[in-house]
Structure formats: structure tokens, C-alpha cells
Design goal:
56% of the residues lie in helices and 16% in strands. By secondary structure, it is an alpha+beta fold.
Length: 988
């Protein structure tokens, strides 16, 4: 409240002027005194009512401001008290102005403005109760109560008008004559009134001073409240320079309030944020609301970024922004979490999109079920294959579609996946649109974040093409094997039939040459012998070529002198070359070792074959053979050869063609020079078998240049190794120590005989515990581990071996036909897997592979082959004969073991089935099936396999015992046949 705007002072001054004027004109206004008296009182009443209204409005505004600033409700009057102090004077003025239309309209305007003020003050009081910050902002944005205020302006105008009227009335009164004593009396009354007004003035000034002090104290509390607030608060001018900053800015920005004062807010922002915020607040200043909230990152004093939320209120003066009041909150943690959630959601959306793309485009049938068998998801391929829309299948089970989904077939595998929490694989055949299709089905459990199984997923892949291809391959292979065997028999018969007369012709030719014949006849005999020799060479080449193509041609491994073999091969053609007038020359590297390991006969054949071509196709000139060392290390040495002749040569475009079978340079060559075009083809095959190479070039002086190379080993072969069929070469597993883990005695004997025959030392362990015990004091090169054994199976034993840090190679050897066995073996730590009954060659090769000795030169060995027969007899001993190599004693030993052990196995299986001890029954059935894989009794093998399948899957258990009784009956019949077979073996 300003000092000279007080209504009391205005009254006091007006009263003094009125009294002086009244005293001065009292004697002249005597006649009009009575009339003007009433008018003066009326004007005084109006002035008094207007001053009361002005005072009350000012008091209300001060009280509300104090309440909003301090929050102290003691400044407020009762609502009815304030309205009475305002509405009562207004009602009185309405009565006083009723005769004046203009004054009445002005009074109605004043009344409307005062009503607005009352409404605003009440709203402000209510807003302060709900949000002091919002109320403070509203109070700041409210225009100050000055003369520009509508209500104040109206009051001032009305007071001025009434004062003018009062002055007018008093002037007219002084002009009238009034009684002097009455004037004195009135003057005394006015003096008293003035004294009372002065007293009220002093009292009001004191009260205003107290109010001002209270406001200052409230302002101090308000500032303390701001400084202690949890948020950073500051104000800036229009240019964005800080004019006030509270102490919380240090925690938020790293800058103290003193460092920020007078600086521009852009010091806390990166250039992109500077431009963004400048545009945002410029838009708010000209177009937007007075308050706004925005999130953005700031740059702290240490250079780190921090996300904040800023609330800004604009302070305007005459519509122009003068100041920004800001509240800033630290939302960095919330923002980081929000960004992480958004990023995670994007990744989830991408993964979901990819997953849906896989489902839509996958050629496999994909479905997901819950633990109760209800479908949760199917892909489009599922709909196509089974002809069921996803709207109909979701939430339902296989039982509701028995004709299409066959619940009796798939329910057991679903239960195994869910209950045992492990994957299941199977193959199945489905009829789709009257077409048979084969599927490979994989089912596996699905787990939630707590590792709990909540369902299963199935993927069925169409393998029809693969199955048909396999069937075609099997058929083609059988046909090819049949053709190969037919060819081998033909070649063997032809060899015998041709060699016999050839040997007779050569022998008789030699005898005739020893008799006395004419020179002309002797020449004929020589021609006959030479033709027979050529024909014999051709037969040998054809047989060698046939053996190469069939993979039957083998290499010996013996010590030999390479220089000696080279000279011998060259000299074998010397006589023929000299007869044609050709010069033979030989150049051997002097550093060539005296002994290498390899097959000297094949080296001799290669050189002789190439020399034969050179001699045959060279009419004059010379033939030169050079041999030298091209590579050498601690184990191997490679010889390179060059054979030059001055013969007819080979055109460039035929340098590769000449290595093809039955190929000739010219169509008439076979008639002029003889031969069948097998020489170079056989030579390249022989060199390839020895890891060698060969190429043909043109000789610079005319003729042909042949380059070839052959590698050999340098280490010596032990002399005590026994020979096999006259050829000195190492058995494939010579010197290897192998531990066989097998609980079936028949299988033990088969494995021991097969491995021992391949040169290995064999020990037997009947279960995994024995394997671990034997490993403690012995060293083995390899372990053949059966999966199913009593006490401790092969998988557990392998895991314990690997846990002990032992890296010994382990090969799984099992008769199990379950899908996934190979993967389980490899996961347990095994190196490889072979099924029983094994093919010896395959077993030997796998052992060499896990030992790291898969050198082709050592991998090409002879072994026993076992081929499936399309129509097997009731009892098939083909495999057993191959294992024992038709050794009658070994054959009888294995058959006796089979008969002795099998009867007891059948008894154990029957007892277990009668007691419904299915675990023991499964073990006995597996042992029986393993035995029948060696001694094959065709119907028995199928029945035992069916029994094992039913016992393992706990299905059709009511048929197990009848099947066992049937198997025993068939076995008893087979026993009689086997015993007769054994008697026949003994006789032979």
C-alpha cells in the first residue's frame, strides 16, 4: 500500500478543505445550508461507501498474496465477512445512485469487476491448497493492482466524481448564509472527525508496517523453501541468461550457482540441443501456452550427458515475455531405462518378425503345444499338410481330429518329451492328397525363464525326396554290386580261360625253339611267342584295370632298392629297343637312397608300361629315362621321373585324352602298333594309388616327354612281421592296443578275433566299471565302447573318463537302432560311432581315423566285406563266415558260444516279462538282438526287435510274453538246423 494513496489521507485532506471552505462561506450560505446539507451528507455517504470498497479490495488482495506466498491462512478473512464488507457498500451505493442513470450503470460495472476479483481470489485460495507452485505462478502472472486495474480505475473515477460533487455542494453552501454558531459546531465536529481519521491513519500505517514485515518474512521462508526443494530451479531473462539459480544446480550440472549466474543456458547443451530448445521456446513465446514441459540431455561439467525434464513458465509484461521461470528434474535413470525398454522392444519386434517369417516360409511343418497337448501355434505348412485352419486347431488337441492327426500314434512321443524333458526324433509316413510323403519329425521341450517346461515344439521336415533317393541308391547299388561281382567273376574266368591256352602256347613255343627247325620255322615260332607274350600282357593289364576299378588292387609295403628296380625295368625293354635300332639311356640321381618302403612291383609296372609305349611308337632315335629326388623329409621321399623319346609324339589337344581308358592317338594305332589303349590309363591309376602324379608334354627335339612322380616312406619295416599270402605288408592295426567294452560273450569273441586278425592286441571289459579299472594300470591306443552294459553303461563310463582328463580315443559300438544315439555318444565325449554288426573294413578305418593315421597309403588294406542279401535264408551264416575267414574251428567255437548263451538269455527274458520287470526285459532283449545280428535267424531277429521296441516304449505290453514264446519256439527249430550245420563243419 502506497503512503499517499490511502483513502484516510484523501478524506483528511478533503475534510480540511471542506471545513475551511465551510467556515469561510458559512455566513454567506445560510439560506442554502439546509438544502445543501442533505446533498453534502449524501455525497459524503457515497464517498465513504466507495472508500470502504476500495479499502476492502486492497485488504483482500494483500491478504490473498500473503497467503499464497507464505501459505499462512491467518491472513485470510472469513468468506462471508469479505463478501459482506463488499456487497453491503455496493447495496448502499445502489440506493444512493437510484436517481442517476449514468451513476447506476457505472456502479453496475464496478459491481461486475468486484465479483470477478472475488471469484479470482477464491480460485487462487483453492489452487494454493492443491498446488502452491501453480498458485504462485498464477499470482506472478496476474497483473499488479495499480490504477490500470479495471475495478481500481472505476473506484478512482467515481471517487473523483463524488469529490467534485462534494466540492460543488460545499461551494454552494458557503455561498449561502448559514448560522455562525452552526458553522462553528460543524467545524468542531469536523475537527473531531479529523482527529478520529488521524488516529485511524496512524493505526493503519502501523498495521501496514506489520503486514510488510510479515511479507518479508514470508518471502524469506519462500526462498528457503526454493533452496531446499528437491528440484533445480532457476530464472532467466529473455536472452536465456541466468538471473537466479538455486543450490540444487550443483548436483544436477556440476556447476555452482555462482558459476551459472549471468551465463547463458546454452553452455549446458550440445549444438543439436541448443538449436532444438531455441526453436521450442521461441515457438512457445510467440504461439504456445505460458507453461511447457520438455525432456532433453544436458552436458555436465565433467563432460558426461544427463537427461533432464524441464518445466518452464513464461512471465509476460504487456504481452511481452520478460522472464522464464524453470524447474528442472533429473530423469537420467528413468530415461536410460526407457531407452533400454524401447531398444529391447525393437529387438523383440525384429525377432518376432523373423520368427513369423520363418513360420510363413518354412517348408517344414512347425507346431507348438502346451503340456496338455493343446495347440498354441501352427504354421501355414501345417495347415496345408493336414488341411486344418489355425482358427480351428488352436486351443484344441489331436483327439479332436482323430482322422487327420492320429493321437494314438503321436501321444506317446508327446508324453516322453514333456515328462522326461528330452527331445524325440522319429520318421513317419503320411498320406497327403492321395500321395505318400515321408517326414522326419523332431519334438523338443520348451522352457520358460524359470527353466520350467511349458510345452513342446515339433518340426516335421518332408524327406520324401531323400527317402526315394535312398531307395533308388540302394537299388542302384545292388545292381552295381551285382554287375561288379558278375564282372569280377567274368574277368576271373576269362583270365583262367585265356591264361591256360596262352601258357600252353608259350610253353610249346619254347619247346619248339629247342628242336631242330628250319630258320624260317624258327622265325615263325618267335613271332608266335611274341604274340602270345603281348596277349598275356594285355590280359594282365585288363585284370589290373578291373581290379583298380573295383578297389581290389592293393599295394605291398616292403623294403626295396629303387635304383635296382628302375634299372631292371629299363633292361626288360633293352633287347626290344636294340632290335629296332634305338638307343636307351638311364640317368639316376646319385643321392637316391638304397632302401625305401613301398611296392617295387608297381613301380616296375609303371616304368615298363611307359617304356613299352616309347619303344613301340619310336621308329628311330633314342629313349632317355632320368630319375631324381624332388622332395624329402624325415619320413617321406618323392622321386621324379622324366622319360623322353624321339617317336611320333602326341598332339597338344590329346595330352589329357590319352589317359582315358581304351584311348588311342589315331584310330588305326591299335592295328599298326597293337594294344588296347589301357597303358596310360592303367599307369595313371597305379600312380594315383601310390599318391603319385603323371603328365604328358611334347619333347623339344620331337617326340614325347612324360613326367611322373612317386612318394615313398623311409622308415624300415620290422622283419618279424608275418607275411600274408606271400606279400610282405603290415596289417592295418599292427601294433595297436585296443580295449573292447562288451557284455555279450559272442560279440566279445567276434570283436577279439576281428581285431586280432588285423594285427591289434585286444583286451575285454564286460562293463564300464571294468573299463575304468583297466585304465588305471594299462595304456591303450583306443577303446571300443558298447553303450548298453550292466553296472555302468558306456555313456557314463565315457563321461567319467573325460572328467578324469583322459583323451584316449573312444568309439561307440552298439546294436541300438534308436535315432539320436550317435549324437548322444558324441555329446558324452566319444570320438566316433559304429553300429553292430560292423563291417571289418569300416571298423578298421574308423580306428585309424581316431588315431590320426588316416594316411591313404596305410588305409588301403584288404578286409572282410559283409553285404546285405535281398533274400536271406532261414539261418544266414554269411557274416559269421566272413569274420572267421571260413576257419572251421573258429566257426564251431562261435556257434557253440551262441547256443550256450542264447538259451539262458531266452529264459531270463521270459522270467522278466512274467514278473513285468520291463527294465531287465529290455536289457535281455538287447543282448539277444545283438547275438542274432551275428548268427542271423531271419524271423527271430524281427520278433526280438519288436519285443525290444514294445518294452522300451511301454506299448503293447500284453503282446510281449506271447511274442517271447513264439521266439523260443522258432529258436528251438533253429537249434536243430544249427547243430546239423555244426556236424557238417566237423566232417569237412
Amino acid at each position: 500500500m502506497k503512503k499517499f494513496s490511502s483513502p484516510v489521507i484523501i478524506i483528511f485532506v478533503a475534510a480540511i478543505i471542506s471545513i475551511a471552505w465551510f467556515v469561510y462561506h458559512s455566513w454567506s450560505a445560510d439560506a442554502l445550508a439546509m438544502t445543501n446539507n442533505q446533498r453534502v451528507r449524501q455525497v459524503n455517504d457515497k464517498i465513504r461507501q466507495l472508500e470502504q470498497i476500495a479499502y476492502t479490495v486492497k485488504t483482500m488482495e494483500s491478504a490473498v498474496r500473503a497467503y499464497v506466498i507464505t501459505g499462512d491462512s491467518g491472513f485470510l478473512y472469513q468468506e462471508d465477512y469479505m463478501e459482506t464488507h463488499l456487497r453491503t457498500p455496493l447495496a448502499n451505493l445502489a440506493v444512493l445512485y437510484k436517481d442517476n442513470t449514468e451513476d447506476t450503470k457505472q456502479l453496475e460495472s464496478l459491481q461486475a469487476e468486484i465479483e470477478k476479483k472475488i471469484t479470482f481470489f477464491n480460485y487462487l485460495i483453492q489452487a494454493n491448497q492443491e498446488s502452491p507452485v501453480m498458485a504462485g505462478a498464477m499470482l506472478q502472472t496476474r497483473k499488479p493492482a495499480t490504477n490500470t486495474d479495471a475495478a481500481t480505475s472505476l473506484l478512482t473515477n467515481m471517487l473523483q466524481k463524488e469529490h467534485a460533487r462534494l466540492n460543488d455542494r460545499l461551494s454552494n453552501q458557503l455561498l449561502n448564509r448559514t448560522p455562525y454558531l452552526f458553522s462553528i459546531l460543524i467545524s468542531i465536529l469536523f475537527v473531531g472527525f479529523l482527529a478520529w481519521g488521524l488516529y485511524q491513519l496512524v493505526k493503519m500505517i502501523n498495521k501496514a508496517g506489520e503486514t510488510e514485515n510479515e511479507l518479508r518474512r514470508s518471502e524469506k521462508k519462500y526462498r528457503q523453501l526454493i533452496e531446499g526443494a528437491g528440484a533445480t530451479m532457476f530464472t532467466t531473462n529473455r536472452g536465456g541468461f541466468f538471473t537466479y539459480v538455486n543450490n540444487k544446480a550443483l548436483d544436477l550440472t556440476g556447476y555452482s550457482a555462482e558459476e551459472l549466474m549471468g551465463k547463458q543456458y546454452t553452455m549446458l547443451l550440445d549444438p543439436p540441443q541448443q538449436k532444438e530448445l531455441r526453436t521450442f521456446y521461441e515457438t512457445q513465446a510467440f504461439e504456445g501456452p505460458d507453461d511447457s514441459t520438455i525432456e532433453f540431455p544436458i552436458r555436465q561439467k565433467n563432460g558426461e550427458k544427463k537427461w533432464v525434464e524441464q518445466q518452464v513458465v513464461l512471465l509476460r509484461h504487456h504481452g511481452v515475455v520478460k522472464q522464464y521461470q524453470c524447474i528442472v528434474k533429473d530423469i537420467h535413470a528413468r530415461k536410460m531405462m526407457q531407452m533400454k525398454l524401447e531398444s529391447a522392444q525393437k529387438e523383440i519386434d525384429i525377432i518376432n518378425f523373423r520368427f513369423q517369417s520363418v513360420l510363413r516360409n518354412s517348408p517344414s511343418v512347425i507346431f507348438i503345444k502346451d503340456v496338455y497337448g493343446k495347440y498354441l501355434l501352427v504354421n501355414e505348412r501345417f495347415e496345408e499338410v493336414f488341411g486344418i485352419n489355425r482358427e480351428h486347431i488352436l486351443g484344441r488337441t489331436d483327439k479332436e481330429f482323430p482322422s487327420k492327426l492320429k493321437p494314438e500314434k503321436y501321444a506317446p512321443s508327446d508324453r516322453e518329451v514333456v515328462l522326461h524333458e528330452r527331445p524325440v526324433e522319429m520318421e513317419d509316413m503320411l498320406e497327403i492328397n492321395n500321395e505318400t510323403r515321408y517326414f522326419f519329425i523332431t519334438k523338443f521341450p520348451l522352457r520358460d525363464h524359470t527353466k520350467r517346461v511349458y510345452g513342446l515344439c515339433g518340426i516335421a521336415t518332408d524327406i520324401t525326396d531323400r527317402i526315394e533317393h535312398e531307395h533308388a541308391l540302394i537299388s542302384a547299388r545292388k545292381k552295381a554290386e551285382h554287375a561288379r561281382k558278375t564282372q569280377e567273376r567274368f574277368m576271373a574266368n576269362m583270365s583262367h580261360e585265356i591264361r591256360t591256352p596262352l601258357n600252353g602256347i608259350i610253353g610249346i613255343s619254347n619247346l619248339l625253339k629247342q628242336t631242330e627247325v628250319k630258320p624260317e620255322q624258327k622265325e615263325y615260332i618267335t613271332d608266335i611267342k611274341e604274340s602270345a607274350n603281348n596277349l598275356l600282357v594285355l590280359v594282365e593289364k585288363i585284370l589290373d584295370f578291373s581290379h583298380l576299378n573295383a578297389g581290389k588292387l592293393t599295394l605291398s609295403r616292403i623294403d626295396f632298392n629303387p635304383a635296382h628296380v628302375i634299372r631292371k625295368a629299363l633292361n626288360s625293354k633293352r633287347e626290344e629297343a636294340e632290335n629296332k635300332g634305338l638307343q636307351l639311356a638311364l640317368d639316376i640321381d646319385p643321392e637316391m637312397p638304397e632302401t625305401v618302403i613301398g611296392d617295387p612291383s608297381r613301380l616296375h609296372d609303371v616304368i615298363v608300361s611307359l617304356m613299352d609305349n616309347s619303344v613301340r611308337f619310336t621308329e628311330q632315335g633314342s629313349i632317355h629315362l632320368a630319375a631324381q629326388i624332388s622332395a624329402k623329409d624325415e619320413e617321406k621321399i618323392t622321386f621324379s621321373f622324366e622319360l623322353r623319346d624321339t617317336g611320333m609324339g602326341i598332339p597338344d589337344h590329346l595330352h589329357e585324352e590319352v589317359f582315358e581308358s581304351f584311348s588311342q592317338i589315331h584310330g588305326s594305332d591299335d592295328r599298326k602298333y597293337g594294344g588296347a589303349g589301357l597303358g596310360l590309363a592303367l599307369t595313371r591309376s597305379l600312380l594315383k594309388l601310390q599318391q603319385g602324379q603323371i603328365s604328358v608334354h611334347n619333347n623339344e627335339g620331337g617326340g614325347t616327354l612324360v613326367r611322373f612322380s612317386v612318394p615313398y616312406h623311409l622308415f624300415a619295416v620290422p622283419q618279424e612281421i608275418p607275411s600274408e599270402t606271400g606279400n610282405h605288408h603290415l596289417p592295418p592295426l599292427y601294433g595297436k592296443s585296443i580295449l573292447v567294452a562288451e557284455d555279450n560273450i559272442l560279440n566279445q569273441k567276434v570283436a577279439q578275433r576281428t581285431l586280432a586278425g588285423a594285427g591289434a592286441t585286444v583286451e575285454i571289459a564286460e562293463n564300464g566299471v571294468e573299463v575304468l579299472n583297466k585304465l588305471e594300470g594299462n595304456k591303450y591306443d583306443c577303446i571300443l565302447m558298447d553303450i548298453q552294459m550292466p553296472t555302468m553303461d558306456g555313456l557314463r563310463a565315457t563321461r567319467q573318463i573325460r572328467d578324469q582328463g583322459l583323451g584316449i580315443p573312444i568309439i561307440a559300438m552298439t546294436a541300438s537302432a534308436l535315432k539320436g544315439d550317435k549324437e548322444r555318444c558324441l555329446l558324452a565325449g566319444m570320438n566316433d560311432y559304429i553300429a553292430k554288426p560292423f563291417i571289418p573294413n569300416v571298423l578298421f578305418q574308423k580306428i585309424l581315423e581316431v588315431l590320426g593315421e588316416r594316411d591313404p597309403e596305410f588305409a588301403n588294406f584288404n578286409g572282410l566285406d559283409y553285404e546285405e542279401q535281398s533274400h536271406r535264408p532261414f539261418i544266414d551264416l554269411h557274416y559269421l563266415r566272413g569274420i572267421v575267414d571260413d576257419d572251421p574251428d573258429a566257426m564251431l567255437d562261435l556257434l557253440n558260444t551262441f547256443l550256450e548263451r542264447t538259451s539262458g538269455m531266452f529264459d531270463n527274458l521270459q522270467n522278466s516279462a512274467q514278473l513285468e520287470n520291463w527294465d531287465d526285459a529290455l536289457q535281455h532283449a538287447s543282448l539277444l538282438r545283438s547275438s542274432f545280428m551275428i548268427v542271423r535267424i531271419d524271423p527271430l531277429s524281427k520278433i526280438i526287435l519288436e519285443i525290444e521296441h514294445n518294452v522300451r516304449n511301454k506299448t503293447y505290453l500284453h503282446t510281449v510274453l506271447p511274442d517271447i514264446n513264439l521266439a523260443i519256439k522258432i529258436y528251438l527249430d533253429a537249434q536243430l538246423i544249427l547243430k546239423k550245420e555244426m556236424e557238417q563243419i566237423k566232417k569237412n
